Amino acid sequence: MSLKPPKKSDKNKEWMKPRQDKRILVQPEYHLIVTEGKRTEPLYFMALKNAIDRKDGGRYKGKIDIQISGEASNTLDLLERAQKYVSSSLNDIKHVWIVYDKDDFPKDNFDNTKKRCEALSSSGKTTYNALWSNECFELWLLLHFQYMDSNISRDKYFDKLSKHMINSGLGEYNKTRTDIFECLRPRLSTAIDNARMLERKNLGLEPSACTPGTMVHKIMEKLEKYI
Known about the structure:
Layout: E1 29-35, H1 40-58, E2 64-70, H2 75-88, E3 93-101, H3 107-122, E4 127-134, H4 138-142, H5 154-167, H6 180-184, H7 188-201, E5 213-214, H8 217-223
Parallel strand pairs: 1-2, 1-3, 3-4
Antiparallel strand pairs: 4-5
Helix pairs in contact: 7-8
């Protein structure tokens, strides 16, 4: 019997109604990851998806369904595109993860995306999660090696990350590497712990005032048990 989640259009059909003499299986969850970047983030999360699909010989494949879209858009537009994707999907997407950096986006857009996600989550069945990073996604990667709460430039993150990776025998960092998730995977618990510590330090601040700060660990807290 297939364990693929039922489509929205099939749920009310007679043949989809559970029989009383059959054990009802828990249906898997659909996740949508929409990223501002078109390279680093999609490659990273695609490797996360593949790791879950391969876990224990494919034990979770079809039970946790992750779709990834690299949109290369601004923050608020990114959220609007995600909403359109959810509304047009035949599947019930339970969790949407919006991945974006501070970069040069206006302060209000950066902060308002988080607020819009919270408002949408409180008024519907889909949870929208703002996985922002200030200054950049590479902060999350750097937290696999060290706790970091100093406000430094984007280029400095790249330099620090490359030094850590080279010293660990993992080679130089670049944004188009397809193996970053697997390279850093053994240090995932360290990254989550460091990100939580940084989150506590930034408690009560708007995302734009968190220099540095990141929420990428939130999706890892949700999916870590499947990795």
